């Protein structure tokens, strides 16, 4: 006995529906990423700071997990304010800034993040 239900079914609609769902998912993900990037750029602009600080201590925290190891670099100034040395896309390298900073020396630093737990330092220049 021949089934006419499955013979007349058009699989092109299913494939088109799957492709449409994939394209919509990628599009929505891209839109959310753009919204996040714009909000982060606005946050950086609003909370930007420039300070002259004297480094009192350097702190290195290492977070081990099963598959990776993450290093977090922090410094404390003479007023016991703690700052995180943060890597930011295309504009700075946190390793360079971390190696540049030395104890008991003064630097002009630029960063952002007044509302975060530790303000983020993006660049530092030695002051004589």
Tally of separate domains = 2
Shape: elongated
Strand content: 25-35%
Q: Per CATH, which architecture of the largest domain?
A: Beta Barrel
Overview of the structural elements:
With 128 residues, this protein is α+β, with helices and mostly antiparallel strands. It has two domains: 4-45; 49-126, Beta Barrel (OB fold (Dihydrolipoamide Acetyltransferase, E2P)), CATH 2.40.50. It has helices at residues 4-7, 12-46, 94-100, and strands at 49-64, 69-77, 82-85, 106-112, 120-126. The protein has a five-stranded mixed barrel. A hairpin with a 4-residue loop joins strand 1 and strand 2. The longest helix is centred in the N-terminal third of the chain and has 35 residues, at 12-46. The radius of gyration is 25 Å and the shape is elongated. It starts with a helix and ends with a strand.
What key attributes describe this structure?
single chain, 128 residues, alpha+beta, OB fold (Dihydrolipoamide Acetyltransferase, E2P), 2 domains
């Amino acid at each position: 006995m021949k089934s006419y239900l499955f013979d007349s079914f058009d699989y092109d609609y299913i494939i088109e529906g799957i492709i449409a769902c994939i394209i919509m998912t990628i599009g929505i993900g891209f839109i959310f990423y753009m919204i996040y990037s714009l909000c982060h750029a606005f946050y950086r602009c609003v909370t930007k700071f420039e300070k002259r600080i004297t480094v009192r201590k350097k702190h290195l925290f290492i977070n081990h997990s099963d598959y990776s190891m993450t290093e977090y670099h922090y410094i404390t100034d003479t007023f016991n304010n703690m700052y995180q040395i943060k890597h930011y896309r295309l504009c700075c390298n946190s390793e360079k800034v971390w190696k540049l900073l030395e104890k008991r020396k003064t630097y002009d630093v630029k960063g952002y993040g007044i509302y975060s737990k530790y303000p983020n330092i993006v660049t530092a220049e030695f002051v004589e």
